[in-house]
UniProtKB/TrEMBL annotation, chains A, B:
<keyword id="KW-0934">Plastid</keyword>
<dbReference type="Pfam" id="PF02866">
    <property type="entry name" value="Ldh_1_C"/>
</dbReference>
<dbReference type="InterPro" id="IPR015955">
    <property type="entry name" value="Lactate_DH/Glyco_Ohase_4_C"/>
</dbReference>
<dbReference type="GO" id="GO:0046554">
    <property type="term" value="F:L-malate dehydrogenase (NADP+) activity"/>
</dbReference>
<keyword id="KW-0521">NADP</keyword>
<dbReference type="InterPro" id="IPR001252">
    <property type="entry name" value="Malate_DH_AS"/>
</dbReference>
<dbReference type="InterPro" id="IPR036291">
    <property type="entry name" value="NAD(P)-bd_dom_sf"/>
</dbReference>
<dbReference type="InterPro" id="IPR010945">
    <property type="entry name" value="Malate_DH_type2"/>
</dbReference>
<dbReference type="InterPro" id="IPR001236">
    <property type="entry name" value="Lactate/malate_DH_N"/>
</dbReference>
<dbReference type="InterPro" id="IPR022383">
    <property type="entry name" value="Lactate/malate_DH_C"/>
</dbReference>
<feature type="domain" description="Lactate/malate dehydrogenase C-terminal">
    <location>
        <begin position="267"/>
        <end position="437"/>
    </location>
</feature>
<comment type="similarity">
    <text>Belongs to the LDH/MDH superfamily. MDH type 2 family.</text>
</comment>
<keyword id="KW-0560">Oxidoreductase</keyword>
<dbReference type="GO" id="GO:0009507">
    <property type="term" value="C:chloroplast"/>
</dbReference>
<keyword id="KW-0150">Chloroplast</keyword>
<protein>
    <recommendedName>
        <fullName>malate dehydrogenase (NADP(+))</fullName>
        <ecNumber>1.1.1.82</ecNumber>
    </recommendedName>
</protein>
<dbReference type="GO" id="GO:0006108">
    <property type="term" value="P:malate metabolic process"/>
</dbReference>
C-alpha cells in the first residue's frame, strides 16, 4: 500500500463521492481482504498529489499506484479495523475515525482550536489505557482543543492496540477527531505536536541496570531519530519509560532538529506522592501543599525537597517539626511508594501515573500559579544550580502556559539537599557514560557501582 | 472498635488538638497494631456524641468506650492504611482522607456545593479503576462538587482496594474530600447519594444463566437491603453487574424505602456502541448521531433502535439505505461488540464501560438536549409502551438534570421493533420468575429455554 494513501487518510477527508487513480505499491499486496477493507477509504486524487510532497520521511518511500473508488456514502462501509501491513511500517486511521475528521467542514465548532496531534508509544499498555481517555476527553488540553491520537504499538501488542481503538470509538469523545495506529515510529510520530514516550522494556529477572539502559537506550535512540525526521518542529517530548531521565537524554541527542528544551522526563508522579505524604504528616489536605521539587533522577537517588516546600504558604519545616521524619522517612516513603503499591495492587501504578502525566502536560499548557512551581526532568544546559550541563535532571520549573518553561532559580540548597542532589547527579553522569555509544560520544565506560533501582522495582 | 468512631472519622474532623473519652467495644480488639493505628485519629467527644444518634444501621451496634488522645498536630501520624477489623464489618477513612475533609472549615471554596457521597461496589475491579478517577476528577458532577467515595470491596480484594486508595491519594484531586473503604455494604452505603453497583460474580465455565441469576441475585438482594437501611433516602442506584436488569429489579424490591424510579441498570454502553456503528456506516462523526434507544434487556435480546434514531437530525433510515444492514448486521454488531473486544484485548471493556457509566450519571444531572434522549433500564411501572409493569427495562429517557428522569413517549414502534422488544420483555419476565424467591414472590419457576448470553460473554 502506498504511503500517499496512508498520509491522505491520516490528514483527513470527508467526501461524499470520490474516484481516484493513484499509485499502487510495486510490491505484492499482503492479502486481498486487507486490500478490500482499504478500498473503503475516501480520497481524492488531488488530495493525494497535494500531500505527497509533505512526506518528510523518505527511508521506505515506494512508487505506488492506487485504485480507490467510492460510490455512494450510504453504501460505504468505512474500514472497521486498523490496517497494518505485515512489514509493519504504517500508521493508519482506525474505524470511525477514517471518515470523520475534516475540521474544515462546517461541523467544526467555530471556537475550536487547530487540531493537536499527540503521539503515544506503549499505547496498548496499562498507563496509556488510562491516559488516552483523559487526553481524548479534553481534560488535558481543554474543551476547545480537538485531538488526533497517533498510537504506537508493537507487533506483539497489535490486537490490544485495536482493542484500545475500539474502546476509544465507543467512548464517543467529541474532541477526538483522529485515531491512527501503527508500529513504526516514523509513521506514528509524523507531525506530532506532543510525543508521550511511555513504552519501554521492563527490567527482567537478573537484568543489570546497565543492560536495561542499553536495551531501552536503543529504543529511545531510534525514536529520537524518528521524531527528528517526521515530528512537528516544536514537538514536546515527555519520556515516561524507564530509566526515563537517560532515555530522554538519548532521545534528545538523536533529535538535533528539535529544541533541547522540549524534552522532559516524568518526575511528576514523585512530586504528587511527595505532596500527599507531606499532607498526611501535617494533617492537612494535599491542596495546601505547594512548592515541592523532585531533584535529580527518577530513581532511588531522587531528592524530594522539603526544604523549599510549603504548607499553607509556610515552610514545611515550620509546620512539621519532626526533623527525623523529614530527613529520613519522608524521602524513603516517596521513593518506595511505587513498590508499596505493587505489593498491594499486584501490579505497578497505572491510573495515578496517567494522572501525573496529564498533570505534567497541563503544567506546560496552563500558567503556573504565582509563586509556585512544578517538577520536571529537563535539560540542564545553563541551569542555575551548577548541575552538570548535559543531563536530563529534575528541577523546579514554571510555565506561562505556552508549552515552554523556565527553571525556577534561587531555591535554598542547604547541605542536606546539596549532598543528595550531588549523588543523583553522579548517578546520571554514570548512566550517561553507559550510553555514550547511543549519544554520539566515544569515551563511554559503564561502571554503575551502586545498582540503584527504579522506584517501584522489587 | 466503636462504630461511633468510624462514623466520626467518616463525617470528618479537622482538629489541631483533641482528647476524648468515648465508648470502647465490649468485645476483644483484634490486634494492638490496628488499635495503635486507629489512635492516630482526630476526634472530639462532642463530635462523637453528636453523631451517635445519626447511626441508622443498628444490626451490629455495640456498646463502646474509646480513649483517643491527640497531642500535637505535627507529631501526629494519620492512619496510613485502611482499618478493617477481621470480622470485616466496617468502612473507614483512608490515609490522607482521614484528616482533611471537614468542609465546614475555611478552606472550602465558597462556591462549592454540599459534599456528595458516591458508594461503589466492585471498587477494586478494572471498571472501577477507571471510573473512580473520573468521578474524583470532577468530570461527572462538575468542578464545584466535592466528592466522598465509599468503596466496597471483598475479603479477597482488600489489598487491591488499598492499592486503589493509594493511587487516588497520589492523584491529588482537589474535589475528593473523603475516601472510605470497607467490605460491609451496611457500612459502605451509609448516607450514599449515589450507589454504583459494579461488582458481580462473572459467569464461570459451565455455569447456566439460571445459576448466575441466583448467585448474583443474592448479592443484589443483600445490597438492596443495605441501601434500604442506610443510604440517603433519595439515593440513585445504577446497577452495572450482570445480569444487570434483573439484579436492579432484585435490588429495588429489597429496598422499599427508596423510590422505585431511582433504580437504573446500565445500557448506556450499548447505546454508545450503537451510535458509533451508525456513524461508521453513514460515514459521519458520531456526535451527529442522536435519539438512539436501547430497548429491553442488557443481553443478546437487546434492541438497538435505528427506527427512531437520527443522523444530522434526519431519520437514520433516510441516511442509511442499506435496510439489510440496519435490520440484521447493525443489531448483531452492537450485541457482539463486547465479545469482539475481548478477542482483541484479551479482557472485557473497562475504560469504555467506565465512560458509559459516567455518561449515564451525567445524563441524570445535566438537562437532556432538547429533542434528544438517552437510554437507561428503568422501572416499567406506568410506562407508555405497554411493557410489563414490573420489570427493569431499557427505554428512552430524558432528564431536567435534577437526578430524576421521565420516559420519552410516542416513539414509533414498527413491527420490526415490536417483535424484538417483545422477545426481550419475555426474557426479562423469565428472569424475574427465576428470582421470585429473592423479590418476595412465591410463584416462581425457572425456565430459561434460550440460554441467551450477556454481551461480551464468550
Amino acid at each position: 500500500m502506498a504511503e500517499a494513501v496512508a498520509l491522505s487518510m491520516s490528514m483527513g477527508s470527508y467526501l461524499k463521492n470520490s474516484s481516484l487513480q493513484a499509485t499502487e505499491c510495486s510490491r505484492q499486496e499482503p492479502s486481498s481482504s486487507l486490500r478490500s477493507k482499504f478500498l473503503g477509504c475516501k480520497l481524492t486524487a488531488s488530495q493525494a498529489s497535494l500531500q505527497l510532497p509533505s512526506i518528510k520521511h523518505t527511508r521506505r518511500q515506494r512508487p505506488c499506484v492506487i485504485q480507490c473508488s467510492v460510490v455512494q456514502q450510504s453504501q460505504v462501509q468505512a474500514p472497521d479495523s486498523v490496517f497494518i501491513t505485515p512489514d509493519g511500517r504504517r500508521a493508519e486511521c482506525y474505524g470511525v475515525f477514517c471518515t470523520i475528521y475534516d475540521l474544515n467542514e462546517v461541523e467544526k465548532p467555530k471556537s475550536w482550536k487547530k487540531l493537536l496531534r499527540v503521539a503515544v508509544s506503549g499505547a496498548a499498555g496499562t498507563i496509556s489505557n488510562h491516559l488516552l481517555f483523559k487526553i481524548a476527553s479534553g481534560e488535558v488540553f481543554g474543551p476547545d482543543q480537538p485531538i488526533a491520537l497517533n498510537l504506537l504499538g508493537s507487533e506483539r501488542s497489535r490486537n490490544a492496540l485495536e482493542g484500545v481503538a475500539m474502546e476509544l470509538e465507543d467512548s464517543l469523545y467529541p474532541l477526538l477527531r483522529e485515531l491512527n495506529l501503527g508500529i513504526d515510529s516514523y509513521e506514528v510520530f509524523r507531525d506530532a505536536d506532543w510525543a508521550l514516550l511511555i513504552g519501554a522494556k521492563p527490567r527482567g529477572p537478573g537484568m543489570e541496570r546497565a543492560d536495561l539502559l542499553d536495551i531501552n537506550g536503543k529504543i529511545f535512540a531510534e525514536q529520537g531519530k524518528a521524531l527528528n525526521a517526521v515530528a512537528s518542529e516544536n514537538v514536546k517530548v515527555l519520556v515516561v519509560g524507564n530509566p526515563c531521565n537517560t532515555n530522554a537524554l538519548i532521545c534528545m541527542k538523536n533529535a538535533p532538529r528539535i529544541p533541547k528544551k522540549n524534552f522532559h522526563a516524568l518526575t511528576r508522579l514523585d512530586e504528587n506522592r511527595a505532596k500527599c505524604q507531606l499532607a498526611l504528616k501535617a494533617g492537612v489536605f494535599y491542596d495546601n501543599v505547594s512548592n515541592v521539587t523532585i531533584w535529580g533522577n527518577h530513581s532511588t537517588t531522587q531528592v524530594p525537597d522539603f526544604v523549599n516546600a510549603k504548607i499553607h504558604g509556610k515552610p514545611v519545616t515550620e509546620v512539621i517539626k519532626d526533623k527525623k521524619w523529614l530527613e529520613e522517612e519522608f524521602t524513603e516513603t516517596v521513593q518506595k511508594r511505587g513498590g508499596a503499591l505493587i505489593k498491594k495492587w499486584g501490579r505497578s501504578s497505572a491510573a495515578s501515573t496517567a494522572v501525573s502525566i496529564a498533570d505534567a502536560m497541563k503544567s506546560l499548557v496552563t500558567p503556573t500559579r504565582e509563586g509556585d512551581w512544578f517538577s520536571s526532568a529537563v535539560y540542564t544546559e545553563g541551569n542555575p544550580y551548577g548541575i552538570d550541563n548535559d543531563l536530563i535532571f529534575s528541577m523546579p520549573c514554571r510555565s506561562k502556559g505556552d508549552g515552554d518553561y523556565e527553571i525556577v532559580p534561587d531555591l535554598q540548597i542547604n547541605e542536606w539537599l546539596a549532598t543528595r542532589i550531588k549523588k543523583s547527579e553522579e548517578e546520571l553522569i554514570s548512566e550517561r557514560s553507559c550510553v555514550a555509544h547511543l549519544i554520539g560520544q566515544d569515551n563511554g565506560y559503564c561502571d554503575l557501582t551502586e545498582d540503584t533501582r527504579l522506584p517501584g522495582e522489587q
